[in-house]
Design goal:
Number of helices: 7
Strand order of the largest sheet: 2-4-3
Pfam family, one: HTH_20
Largest sheet: 3 strands, antiparallel
CATH topology of the largest domain: Arc Repressor Mutant, subunit A
Oligomer: single chain
Strand content: 5-15%
Protein name: Helix-turn-helix domain-containing protein
CATH class of the largest domain: Mainly Alpha
Organism: Streptomyces exfoliatus (Streptomyces hydrogenans)
Structural class: mainly alpha
Length: 218
C-alpha cells in the first residue's frame, strides 16, 4: 500500500521504507501522521509551521507528530532552517508493511494499519466523487471506478499484483522529475486493492461480473 513522494533533486532517497516494529506500525496508523508523511512526499520539505498551515492543526501538534515520525524513521530533518523553523522531509517515497507475520503483535499492528489506510482511501475516494462534477469532461471519462470478480489461486493473485506494479513502474519517475511529465499531466491516485471474497461460500454460484458505472462498460 504505497504512497508517492516528491524527492528533491539530487536526493538519494530510498524507494520505500518497510515497517516491521509493532510500535512503528501503530504510530504510523495515526491519521495526522499519515497526512504529514503524504504531504512531505508531495510538497516537502517544510517546517512544522507550514505543516500547520496545510493541515489546520496547531504548530505544536504538528511538531510533536513529526518528531514521532522521525523516531520511527519515516521523516527526518532536512538541511537548512534554524531553531524551531527546521524543515522536515520524508525518508522514502513509499511505506510498506507485512501482509502476514507469524508474530501476533506484528500481525495485529499491521492489520490495524491496513484498516486505517483503507479508511483513509475511502475518505479520499468519497471526497473525489463529491467533487468530480468540477472536472473537465476528459478527466471524468478517463477516471476509473469499478471492480472485477475473478477466480484466482493465491499464486495467480500474487502474479497479477506483480504485473500491475510493472505497468505502473514507468510512471514513477515523474514524481521526482517534473521534466518527465507531459503537458496536461496531473497527480492521479491509483488504488490497488484485491481481497478474498469471504461473503460468497466456497463452491457456491457467484455472479460473473461486478459493479461499475455504465460509462465504463462502453
Amino acid at each position: 500500500m504505497p504512497e508517492i513522494s516528491d524527492p528533491q533533486p539530487g536526493d538519494e532517497q530510498p524507494r520505500s521504507i518497510r515497517l516491521t516494529d509493532p510500535r512503528a506500525l501503530r504510530a504510523y496508523a495515526h491519521p495526522l501522521r499519515m497526512t504529514l508523511v503524504g504531504l512531505l512526499r508531495a510538497n516537502g520539505p517544510f517546517t512544522a509551521t507550514r505543516a500547520a498551515e496545510l493541515t489546520g492543526e496547531s504548530v505544536a501538534s504538528c511538531s510533536y507528530h513529526l518528531r514521532i515520525l522521525a523516531k520511527y524513521g519515516l521523516v527526518e530533518e532536512a538541511p537548512g532552517g534554524r531553531g524551531r523553523e527546521k524543515p522536515w522531509r520524508a525518508t522514502a517515497r513509499y511505506t510498506e508493511w507485512p501482509e502476514y507475520s507469524e508474530d501476533a503483535a506484528v500481525s495485529q499492528a499491521a492489520d490495524a494499519l491496513s484498516a486505517a489506510i483503507a479508511e483513509r482511501y475511502f475518505e479520499r475516494v468519497t471526497r473525489a466523487m463529491e467533487n468530480r462534477h468540477r472536472l473537465p469532461k476528459e478527466w471524468r471519462e478517463a477516471e476509473q471506478f469499478g471492480d472485477s470478480l475473478l477466480h484466482l489461486t493465491p499464486e495467480e493473485l500474487a502474479g497479477l499484483g506483480e504485473r500491475i506494479n510493472a505497468l505502473l513502474l514507468p510512471y514513477e519517475a515523474r514524481a521526482s522529475d517534473p521534466s518527465l511529465r507531459p503537458e496536461g499531466a496531473r497527480p492521479v491516485i491509483v488504488l490497488r486493492i484485491a481481497y478474498l471474497d469471504q461473503d460468497t461460500p466456497e463452491g457456491a454460484d457467484s455472479p460473473g461480473g461486478a459493479d461499475a458505472p455504465e460509462s465504463e462498460e462502453e
